[in-house]
Automatic annotation (TrEMBL):
<feature type="binding site">
    <location>
        <begin position="53"/>
        <end position="56"/>
    </location>
    <ligand>
        <name>NADP(+)</name>
    </ligand>
</feature>
<keyword id="KW-0028">Amino-acid biosynthesis</keyword>
<dbReference type="GO" id="GO:0004735">
    <property type="term" value="F:pyrroline-5-carboxylate reductase activity"/>
</dbReference>
<comment type="similarity">
    <text>Belongs to the pyrroline-5-carboxylate reductase family.</text>
</comment>
<dbReference type="GO" id="GO:0055129">
    <property type="term" value="P:L-proline biosynthetic process"/>
</dbReference>
<dbReference type="GO" id="GO:0005737">
    <property type="term" value="C:cytoplasm"/>
</dbReference>
<dbReference type="Pfam" id="PF14748">
    <property type="entry name" value="P5CR_dimer"/>
</dbReference>
<feature type="domain" description="Pyrroline-5-carboxylate reductase catalytic N-terminal">
    <location>
        <begin position="1"/>
        <end position="80"/>
    </location>
</feature>
<dbReference type="InterPro" id="IPR028939">
    <property type="entry name" value="P5C_Rdtase_cat_N"/>
</dbReference>
<keyword id="KW-0641">Proline biosynthesis</keyword>
<comment type="function">
    <text>Catalyzes the reduction of 1-pyrroline-5-carboxylate (PCA) to L-proline.</text>
</comment>
<keyword id="KW-0963">Cytoplasm</keyword>
<protein>
    <recommendedName>
        <fullName>Pyrroline-5-carboxylate reductase</fullName>
        <ecNumber>1.5.1.2</ecNumber>
    </recommendedName>
</protein>
<keyword id="KW-0560">Oxidoreductase</keyword>
<dbReference type="InterPro" id="IPR036291">
    <property type="entry name" value="NAD(P)-bd_dom_sf"/>
</dbReference>
<dbReference type="InterPro" id="IPR008927">
    <property type="entry name" value="6-PGluconate_DH-like_C_sf"/>
</dbReference>
<keyword id="KW-0521">NADP</keyword>
Amino acid sequence: MGSALIKGLHRSGKHTVTACDLDPDALESVADYVDHTTSDVSEASAADVVIVAVKPDIVGAVLSDLDLSPDQTLLSIAAGVSTDYVEARTDANVVRIMPNLAAETGDMAAAVTADGVTDEVRELLDDVGEFAEIDEAKMDIATAVNGSGPAFVFYLIQAMADAGVEGGLEEDDAETLAAQTFKGAAETVLRSEQSVDELIDAVCSPNGTTIEGMEVLWDSDADADVAAAVAAAEERSEELAAEFGSEDDE
């Protein structure tokens, strides 16, 4: 996720980015997309915004090495790690975010805790996609929708592409058509003032091809199965948060 954000910010051309990691291979993998690489965490003290993109179990150790001031902002993307936990370990303004890998292409969907968000953070997130400001209590469901969601969409794209191949399309052509259709439909939802139901109606001509396919979906459990996948991801996010909280209390 860290490298995806780096590549997305580089793509925007609006930011000076320094990558910090103790792993030289990790730094080498993003060297072409940053202005500077370092293994010296103290260099973070010179940044306006510091992004902590590490596994939850090492957040505490990383924060203990950071010496940040109140006029800096720290963005945490560690799943299950509360804002309270981070705030207790830094003087910086803390904002928790849950982005996704599409940040790399500027198409990220991110959830961000409403408390502490600054215009500077909004501008940064705008440069790599779309975001929604939410209450922190809703971060588990947001993690399921936009954090885990790309995998669910990849699954559906593959299902549509496979159907195209079965119908005679070449594999590459079917994948292109299915993926671009999802991309175009998603963009339409974001830009249109119509509801999703209204957009479906707009595509479904009476006695046409689309309405025949939609009748199959409406009669199926597809919507319930998607909801179940989201619920399972949300439950796991809650479990991870509880596990992290238990470790912190020990």
